[in-house]
Amino acid sequence: MTLEQLAIQGRRPETLTMAATIGESIGKARKSSLKNYFIDCERVKHRNEVVEYKNGVSYIDDSGARSISATYFTLSETSAPTVWITVGGKGDYEELIPVVRQCVVSVICVGECTDSVVRTFSGVVRGSVKTASDMREAMTLAERIAVPGSNILFSPANSLQDKIIACLASDFVKTAKK
Predict the structure, then answer these.
(1) Is the pLDDT of residue 7 over 50?
(2) 67-82 burial string, b = 16+ CB within 10 Å, else e?
């Protein structure tokens, strides 16, 4: 791992190390149910994973962030300007406004129910709030906006069906690696 890639990771490795240490300590616990719960804390798939780095832009898969709180955590850990790709839904996105204002340069919302996202973040981000019908269109928009040193983040902030999120995440990773 290069120094540049390490810097991109931010404080996330510290958090994972802390979780692994807690998991190891709890691994010595007597209750097997408690022990089994924490034993696999070391790596959570699809949570803040850098899947590609090209043209100075990091492509981050955070498709495991199925709630507004999970997306809040990811965005609060981000230090680089970020193009955030999310999924339309009927959630209350108001609590994300401070962290979006701080690090998000543009929001791209995929899907049909985009009104809530567009209404919440219009005028909040430095750039624009755009909608896309599918992930490929969202990635095309994101790649036009992203500049070297920035991130393209897919973090749904929505608890849609697993199959839908998995499909979108797969398209995100495939497009990032092209």
Answers:
(1) no
(2) ebebbbbbbebbebbb
